[in-house]
Amino acid sequence: SGCASLKGTPTMAIEPLTNFVNGAFVKSGASEFLPVRDPGTTDVLTQVPLSPKEEVDAAVTAGAVAFREWRRTPAGERIQPLFRLKVLLEQNRDEIAKIITRECGKTYVESDAEIQRAIENIEVACGAPSMMQGVTNEDIARGIDESMVRQPLGVVAAITPFNFPLMVPLWFMPYAVACGNSFLLKPSEKVPMTMMKLMELVAQAGFPKGVIQVINGARDVVDAILDHPDVKAVSFVGSTPVAKYIYSRATANGKRAQCQGGAKNPIIVMPDADMETTTRIAADSAFGCAGQRCLAASVAITVGDARNEFLERIADAASSRKVGYGLDKATQMGPVITGDSKARIEKLIAMGEMEGAKIVVDGRQHKVSGYEDGNFVFPTILDGVPHGGELARTEIFGPVFSLTHASTIEEAIAMCNDRAYGNAASIFTTSGAAARQFRYEVASGNVGINLGVPAPMAYFPFSGWRQSFFGDLHAQGAHGFEFYTETKVIIERWPKEWSRKF
C-alpha cells in the first residue's frame, strides 16, 4: 500500500509515502521529506518524499513505453478500467472521505461531495468512444476525400493543489487515459495521501503498468516535468503566480498547457433578492471548505436597499457557523490548511481594517475546544471594504467575506469587471431582466444566477477568464477530450487507373 499510518506520531517514526511508478508502489530515494499534518490537530500524519529528478525521468520513461500499446488499445477497451475505478471509488467512499478530511481539513460532508464530483468526471470520460470521433467529407474535390481523426499526445502530466485532493486530479486523469495517453501526477505535497489511496484502486482497476503514475515532491519535481521533452502536455490548478510560471515554462518547452489560477469571486445582491435564501447560499459559498475554494464567494456587492438587511443576516450566519474538526458531525466549517495560511489570512484581515473596513465579525483569536493547536480561522465579515483597496483585489483563500456597496446594477457589474480575475461571479435577484443583464455583461468564465458556487458539471468545461486561467482549453467535458488529443487531417486520392486489375 502507498498509504502510511494516519496516527499523529513523531515525524521520524513514520514510514514515508511511496511513489506509484510502472504499476507498483516504489520507495523514493529522496534525501529530504516533508511532514504531512492534520490541519485540525497539526499532528503529523505521514511524510512525503521530495523525489529527485531521476525518479521523474524514470516515470516518464515508463509512461512513454506504456503509451505505445495503450494508444493502440481501442477506446471501448480503454474505458473499461475507468468503469471499474468508478465502482471502486463508490465502494471505498467512506474511507476516502475520511482521508481527505484528515489531510485537508474540510468537513466529512464536503469531502464526500468532492468524491461525487470526481466520480462524475470518470463517468463523462467513459464517453471517449463518441467524444473522440472524427469527421469525414467525400469528394472535397473530384475523387478526393478528406477526414479528420483525433490521436493521443503521449505522456501528459498534471500538478494539482491541496484544496481538492481527489476531485482536481480527476478533472484530468480520466480524460487523459480514455483518450489513449499515459498520465503522470504530481499531487500537492500538503495532501498526498488521497492520491496514494487512489493508486491502490487504480492498481485494482486493471490499468496497464505505466498508464497512470504518481511522483511526490515539490518544485524540483514540477520543474523536471516541465522540462522533460517526452511530457507533451501539462495541466495545473493553483495560484495565479504559479499558474503563470508553469504556463510560461511549459509552453516555452513546446508543451500544451492549461493552467487554472487564482480568483476573487464577487456576488451581487439585488434589493429584490430573497434575503433568507441568499444569505444561506452566500454563507455556504464564502465559508464552505473554510473559503479554500477557487469558486468561493469572497466579495458581496450589495445594491441599493439590499445593504443593511444583507449585512445583518450574513453577520448572524457567520457568527453562528459551527467551527470544529472535520470528522465531528456537528462541524460546519473546518480549519485552513496550514499555520502559515492562518497567519497570512489574519494579516489580510488586519490590512482590511487598516484600509478603512469595519470588522463586523472577527474570526481571529478563536480556539476550538479539544483542538487548540489546529489551524482555525473563524468566519469573518468585513464591511465597507474599499473597492480600490488591496484587500478587494487580493485572493485571501480563507473564510473572509468582504462587503462593499453599489447604487445600481450597472455600477455593481462594473465593479465585478474591474478586477484582474475572472473565475466566477454570481447575482442574487428575482428579476429576469437583471439576471440577463448580468450574465451578458459580466467578465467571468463561470456565472451563477442565484447560486453561490457556480461549479460546472463534468460535461461542461470549468471556464476561467483573464488572470484566472492561462491556456485555450479548460478542464472537463469536451475541452478535456480536445486538450488530450491532436487532430490529424487526411486527404486521400485513389484514381481508378492506379488500381490493380484482377
The shape, in one word, is globular
Going by helix content, strand content and strand pairing, the class is: alpha/beta
Low-pLDDT regions: 1-12
Q: What value does the average pLDDT take?
A: 93
Portion of residues in beta strands equals: 15-25%
- Characterize the main sheet: 7 strands, mixed
Radius of gyration: 24 Å
What topology, given as strand order, has the largest sheet?
A: 14-15-16-13-12-18-19
Give the strand tally: 22
Give a structural overview.
By secondary structure, this protein is α/β, with parallel strands linked by helices. The chain is built from 16 helices and 22 strands. The protein has helices spanning 53-70, 75-78, 80-91, 93-104, 108-125, 128-131, 169-178, 193-205, 219-227, 240-252, 275-287, 306-320, 339-354, 409-417, 432-441, 477-483, and strands spanning 19-21, 24-26, 33-37, 44-49, 135-141, 144-152, 155-159, 182-186, 212-214, 231-237, 256-260, 265-269, 297-303, 358-361, 380-383, 400-406, 421-422, 424-428, 446-449, 465-466, 469-470, 485-493. The strands form six sheets. It has a seven-stranded mixed beta sheet with strand order 14-15-16-13-12-18-19, sandwiched between helices. Strand 5 (135-141) and strand 6 form a beta hairpin. Helix 3 (80-91) runs antiparallel to helix 5 (108-125), helix 3 (80-91) crosses helix 8 and helix 4 packs across helix 5 (108-125). The protein is globular and about 90 Å long. The model is unreliable at 1-12 (pLDDT under 50).
